[in-house]
Amino acid sequence: MKILIVAAEATPFAKVGHVAEVIGSLPSALAKLGHDVRLVIPRYGRISPNKFDLKPVINQLNIPLKNERTEPVSVLASSLKEEVPVYLIDSDRYFNREGIYGYPDDDERFILFCRAVLEMLPQLNWQPDVIHCHEWHTALIPYWLKTQHATTPFYRNIASVYTIHNLAYQGIFGYRVLEIAGIADYNFIYNNAQEHSELVSLMSLGIRHADIISTVSPSYAKEILSPQFGENMNGLLNERSDRLCGILNGIDTNHFNPATDRYLAATFDVKTLKKRGANKLDLQREIGLPQNPDIPLIGMITRLASQKGLDLLEQIINPLMQLNIQFVLMGTGDQMYHEFFSQIAQRYPDKMALRLTFNAILAQKIYGGSDIFLMPSRFEPCGLGQLIAMRYGSIPVVRKTGGLADTVQDFDPATGEGNGFSFVEYDQWMLFATIVRALETYKNREVWHKLMERDMQRDYSWDSSAVEYVKTFQRAIKLRQKVETV
Question: Residue limits of the Glycosyl transferase family domain (predicted)?
Answer without folding.
Answer: 293-449
